[in-house]
Design goal:
The protein has 325 residues and is of the alpha/beta class. 35% of the residues lie in helices and 19% in strands. An 8-stranded parallel beta sheet has the order 1-9-8-6-5-4-3-2. Strands 7-11-10 form a 3-stranded antiparallel beta sheet. Helix 4 packs parallel to helix 5.
């Protein structure tokens, strides 16, 4: 079994962090990954403190494993930010931030409430800023990643730059969906890996079946790095399946479907080229919605329990590292 600075820091037995893949990262998925020995994640950035409290309290009742809460601070009400982060940090093992500049005051709030803080970064400069802000570990996200992409160079190139300049544990993210890719990242010096696209195909995820089937049918060449799905979130590059961009470009109308609001109930329309996580409850032209996919999409060969995904990644990575070593 792996032992790295990351596993020692956070207390999990396997150096795998499940990515906070929007509304697809359900508490059930986070629980399954945590129970399998990795770190499960849930997204909390759109939720008021009361909802965060309820969701994470329920999650803690389901598992004694390691899990974290993810925040994209640009979508958090500034007046509630520190309260929301404090509520999460009092319940989760880790509080993670992404797609905003590292903020020392937020890290202080995390630490004051007893949790570990991390930042997902896309450059060497941002990694240094995150460590200077007080982060306990960081995630280096390369250009291969699915969903919104902070990195501008490949994962291995970024990992090399980051490892040269920081002394905290570093997880590698982007293009990791197989044990071979996991082994390569660990061999290159990463303390663990962050896996997103592969977990979209987990039984416990809330991904729409049409979206999952599109992932299963896709290869790395079928993904595209683009800014197409920028309605409501401009200037934020992302990686999706090429087919959904083509479908959206030919779609007639401004509303592609309807979205069920997570945790708070109710529905709202989905605008054309709006970035969303396509959950089972979404209705409409699923093929024309933002089908996030990293270059690791080839690893999604079917729908599997999250524990099986973790086991496959670990078994293959361990075997390869023994052979290489």
């Amino acid at each position: 079994m792996f032992t790295t600075r990351f596993t020692e820091l956070v207390g999990c037995s396997i150096p795998i962090q499940q990515a906070a893949i929007g509304g697809l990262a359900t508490p059930d998925l986070a629980t399954a990954v945590a129970q399998a020995g990795g770190m499960g994640m849930v997204c909390m950035y759109w939720s008021p403190p009361g909802v965060i409290e309820n969701v994470l309290d329920d999650l803690r009742e389901q598992t004694s494993g390691i899990f974290g809460a993810n925040f994209i601070m640009r979508f958090v009400d500034p007046a509630l930010a520190h309260e929301a982060v404090a509520v999460a940090a009092a319940r989760a093992n880790v509080v993670e931030f992404f797609y905003s500049d590292p903020d020392p005051s937020l890290i202080e709030t995390v630490h004051a409430s007893g949790a570990i803080a991390c930042w997902q970064v896309g450059s060497q400069a941002e990694a240094i800023a995150a460590v200077d802000a007080g982060c306990d570990f960081i995630i280096a996200q390369g250009l291969e990643a699915g969903g919104h992409v902070r990195g501008r160079i490949s994962m291995l190139a970024l990992l090399d730059e980051v490892l040269e300049t920081v002394d905290v544990p570093v997880l590698a993210a982007g293009g990791i969906g197989t044990g071979r890719a996991m082994a390569a990242a660990l061999a290159a010096g990463a303390d663990g890996v962050r896996v997103g696209t592969r977990f979209v195909g987990a039984v416990e995820a809330d991904a729409h079946p049409k979206y999952v089937n599109a992932l299963i049918a896709a290869k790395a060449k079928d993904t595209i790095y683009t800014e197409a799905f920028s309605t409501g979130w401009p200037d934020a590059p992302h990686r999706v399946l090429r087919g959904c961009v083509e479908a959206a470009e030919t779609f007639q109308g401004e509303i592609v479907g309807e979205k069920q609001l997570l945790y708070i109930g109710g529905k709202r329309p989905i605008r054309l080229f709006e970035p969303i996580s396509i959950r089972k409850s979404e209705t409409g032209a699923i093929e024309a919605m933002s089908q996030w996919a990293g270059e690791s999409v080839n690893g999604v060969k079917g729908v599997q329990p999250a524990a099986d995904i973790v086991r496959e990644l670990v078994d293959e990575a361990e075997g390869l590292l023994r052979r290489w070593g």
